[in-house]
Give the backbone structure.
Amino acid sequence: MRRYDRLKDILRLDPEKDCHTIYRWIVTYEFPWDVTRALEFALFRTYAVPGIGALLARTAELTERSQKRYDDTSLLLDAVVEHGFDSAQGRTAVRRINQMHRAYTIPDDEMRYVLCTFVVTPTRWLDAYGWRALTNHERRAVTAYYRTLGARMGIRDLPESYAEFEHCMDAYEAEHYGYDAGGRAVADATLALMATWYPRPLAPLVRRGSIALMDDRLLRAFRYPAAGAGTQRLVRGALRLRARAVRLTPPRRTPRFARHNPRIRSYPGYPDGYALDGLGTFPRTCPVPHDAPAADS
């Protein structure tokens, strides 16, 4: 198999009807490292919305149990990628995600925004740092995949095209981004978690490198000082150099799923030491006061 052979196979498929197959090939064969990194940065974007950041801080899941929350989120989302929406594993994963969300009062526009970040952030990352950019055919498939996921999560008024997802994300950020102490605490905890994945002497470099990849809007929301121009050029140049190197290597012949990720550390006997219906949080009450009681989980 040559480097662009799988893309040729993707282009033969229908981007709506075969969206799951195309998305699975994109994230497990074509760009597994890039999409994982991009989705990590998608999470940062959600913390910059004060309502989301404050709620996540109150639950303490991402500040006190960062590794487990990272692991559970990765494994639940990836169960759908690996097995499909209509598989037993996919249905269990989506049901578990919905149970967690129903324990809190989360506005529908926030749910929709988070979904937008999962569509747009990886696409923009691949435009900037991937060994190739996604084709319009693939963007349609990614859009269809997340529209399907969003529908199964009960999110209303889903954007219909990639361009609409992109506009929805950008407009929402322009209107809602702002500083919140809780959101900043969650961002700090996530940066600290990411630093633990590398040898300890590299921890300050991991933090500075991650901040160097954040755009000005995100930095302002967290009140992070911008990385110097030299640091930005170094970090972003290194990612582009990696992309050129990957382009010259043979394509992957085996898929890389989240359960293969060595950064997932919460479960003894991993990757077989967990059950999907036991992942995630099981809150008894919502930590945020509101008029109506939260739906039972």
Summary: The first helix runs from residue 5 to 11. The mean pLDDT is 92. The chain has one domain: 5-249.
